[in-house]
Predict the structure.
Amino acid sequence: MNMPEERMDRKRCCTFLIENTCFAVEADNVTEVLQRGVINNVPLASPAVSGLLNLRGRIIPAIDLRIFLEFPAAPPSIKQISLIVDINNEWYCFLVDKLLDVKAYDPHQVTPPTNDSSSVLTGVLPDTDQLIHFLSPEKILKSLLNIRTESLSVG
Amino acid sequence: MADNEEFISEFLIEASENLDQLDQDLVALEKNPHDPDRLASIFRTIHTIKGTCGFFGFTKLSNLSHHGEHLLGLLRDGKLHFDEQMASLLLELVDAIRTFLTAIESTGKEGDAAFPDLCQKMDATCLLAADPQNNQTEECLASPSSSTNQSNQPDDRTTSTPEEQPVVSTTSNHPAEADKLAPVASPDILSRSGSTRSNNTFDATIRVDVQLLDTIVDLVGELVLARNQLRTTATNEPALLDAVNRIHTVTGELQEVAMKTRMAPIDQLFNKFPRIVRDVAAACDKKVNLHIDGSDTELDRTLIEKIRDPLTHLIRNAIDHGIESKDMRSVAGKSTSGEISLRAFQESGQVTIEVSDDGAGISVDAVCKKAVEKGLVTEDAASAMSDERIFQFIFEPGFSTANAVTDISGRGVGMDVVRTNIESIGGTIDISSQRGVGTIVRVRIPLTLAIIPALIISSGGERLAIPQPYIQELVSLRKNGTTHIIDGLEGAPVLRLRDRLIPVVYLDRWLGLRDWEKRPTSGTVVVVKVDNHEFGLVVDAVTTSENQHSHATETTGLSFIVVKAISSLLAPMGIYSGATVMGDGSVVLILDLRGITMAADIPALTRRAGDLQSTSEEPSEVVQESSRYLVCETHNGHRVAVPLNQVQRLENFLESEIDPAADSRFVKRNGELTQLIDPDQVLHTSKELGKEPTGSLVGIILPNELGNKAIAVRRIIDIETGHGPLEKTATKRGLLGTLLVGDSATEVMDIVSASQWSEENPLS
């Protein structure tokens, strides 16, 4: 938001790896990045919610993007990284395999992959040697809330 | 423009505060019409509102207040009499101004309402001033004409029109009041500060954004957690240890101070009630006097807001259904005006609010009959219940019907909602009533929701917190003990607890933490009660936890935990009400028992348990509360029993925590000194062999009405049901008698006389 005016058309994103696939979220909402710390389990929460994390007294739900995106659970060899994201003034922690970079990009070059507006995948951007898949944290949250409502109504 | 907005919001805050004050002043004036100071203060308030709205261009509001001001001017000068009608009219004015303010607050504009009827009524009343005293035509001609002008052409008034004009004209007619008006006729800012009601604390208090305060409280909470983490990190460096200890002390004090910023006196709420009582009483054609006591009692700001509706409901009920009609009161030999008293006081970490009336009272029999009719209780069971217990049925949903309103003097309309509201903030509510004498409704609520007492339990490898207000008792499951869980109908497990069968939920299994084929035989059942639904949560253990608040509760597993909101992602699950951070930095979820009651469908399980009970072979024995005893062992190894209904709570203390004050033994709990009563001293028991000091003791905390006292014993043996009548051997002080408890004769202590004994013999 506070970017210099001449770069208004350029945005920054935070890229990371999950199961060797490159994903990205907009960098503006990422407040910090840290090693995965102790995460306390939340019984009966949806599987993608790994639990709660205590970040300097703030209690933050951790979402494992591997589980959420239906990749296999992280093997012990992977030391997951916590991406702390601010979504409407609430903090969430996204667990990813590896942080890559913070890079500037032109939003016009991002092509929406599907017509499904509820999809958490908001666009794809070709990079030098790979595709960057843009994720919308808000939509991830929304879809998690929907999953739970469904499972509760079934149970 | 932004500046203007700021001024407007300041004006709104101040005006609404002043209007609240007006409500009180008008109701007070109605009782004592000859109070010139109050009248003058009302006049100033309205005048200020008029002036300020003129300044901001709210012409309609300005016009309305001008009419009111004129009327008040006549009142102040004794041209008109203040009576009930006048009060109603002026209260109507206050409400109309409120309507404007609400519109301004939400839309920034004053809205379309103009209240022409009200203006006319006020003008008509003003004209009355002319009738009785013809010799005062001069003023009467001058004043109404100026106001008539205004009411005829209100829209001609523009922002630039200074509002001083009518004031000046009034002033010229009444030279005597020129002095009084001088401060308010001065420029806007001055007049506003001048009209602020006399406030001695003016210099000592400032307005601070509530959010800012909350942020401070939050940050202090984080500091406390950081400190706890620091303390658990063992260190051998003396200098560092010193610093850590200093931080520990300062943080503790800081937390206390920060918590105080959340507190506010309850008079913010109580101030609204004189007006409500007046209006409701008038609507019911009753005369009611309201007495308010303890309005300086402080509690958490957020809680004040939450008890507003329940208390309003209770007061309405008391007037509408509690207080009899004037005729009925005179027949009953009572004064025609009813008395309602509203009392608040702090008591052992809770705030008690009492709403009492001297009305017709509630008939226990009628409530009982109704409860039996509704199938809430069997006749036999009801006959063994205390009156208080029976009155609890009033809080059952849909208990009261139109029919019941006349039967049981109407309590119960919406009372289930009242109870739900009170319980949702961890409070309790009970009723006591005497037919023909009156009713007292007692609401007890915690001082704050930010720090709550809770039990930390472990289940399936997880630690969870259960808020203490819901907990009834803890039952230990033993392999060969008498307490056991049996299969109920359709395999639903139930716990046989003395005379009752209550449904139980295995927390580990229910939360999906663990599964098992054969039911575990060890563990603890936490018996909880939510909305009269009693059920057990089977947990692995009650953990002893480090404590953030006081050391006194350390060994009982009861902790004072700082409640943090859980994310909006998890809140809709409905089974966790929040979370807290333990000293080691780990997050512990707080169970939402109300939600769990719903999710586990406890009401259905309770019904099934009830079915099982009625079909069971064993005759179900009705046990009265009073025949249950807490059996314990004194330090000399003597076995004594204490009636369970006189036990408030059990707490463990270390011998080292006891403060041998000048002439008595005290222990500090929750910042207050509790006197310890030694039953060995009271009963003059002799020491049995092999009973050496253990270094710790259990305090049986006595009911608050006996003062801050606890009976100190070596250990608790069990809760037992007494069989047969109490054998009165009691010539011995402090002894109620002897009773067969379990299978041996046990001395039952008389708490009241033991408490008296401790006052006479402090050196124990």
The interface with chain A takes residues 221-223, 225-226, 460, 462, 511-513, 564-570, 572-573, 575-576, 579, 581, 585-589 of chain B (CB under 8 Å). The longest helix of chain B spans residues 2-31. The CA atoms of residues 67 and 119 of chain B lie 6 Å apart. The two ends of chain B are 73 Å apart (CA to CA).
